[in-house]
């Protein structure tokens, strides 16, 4: 029964994903369409791109994964626009489009480009360019070009407020050793037969053989 429910939910999820991909494939946007965080077929995206409005095309340069220097939790300063000079915390990062979203700042119709922000040096709270360098121990760190100080990467925090690197197991938590311990022995018995054996239930009756022609 549980296997059937699980299979049904998996098939339903695949159907929803297939429908979503098919919808995205049918959507055609004009050449001057300005992409945002909303899907193109939603009302919010259509409101930001009304018919007849021409917008400047935004070109995005690919940044290699090992050269990306802004992460979620960093404090940055906006360099242009109506929020120029304001500082905010990065809540989301979209590397495929060089986007960042700042907490509490209505920056634009779409997220900010990486070229429009600068990382804030925690030593003096001023924006600075950064470079990746290696310490004597071989650790790769971000260094402020202006002050030469190391800017540590922000501690990753989940939405529920838990920091995985600082988590300590409680008395009711399962230890990693117990998790990796193999306690299941494969068998050819069904789930019902295993439950009956564990509870000491004896069932001498057997199902009658049936034949299909």
TrEMBL record:
Protein name: Large ribosomal subunit protein uL24m
Source superkingdom: Eukaryota
GO cellular component, one term: ribosome
Keywords: Ribonucleoprotein, Ribosomal protein, Signal
Family note: Belongs to the universal ribosomal protein uL24 family.
Transmembrane segments: none
Keyword Repressor (UniProt): no
CDD domains: KOW_RPL26
Gene Ontology biological-process entries: translation
Domain KOW per the UniProt entry, residue ranges: 69-96
Species per Swiss-Prot/TrEMBL record: Conger conger (Conger eel)
Molecular functions per Gene Ontology: RNA binding; structural constituent of ribosome
Pfam families from the UniProt entry: KOW, ribosomal_L24
SMART domains according to UniProt: KOW (SM00739)
Leader sequence segment: 1-19
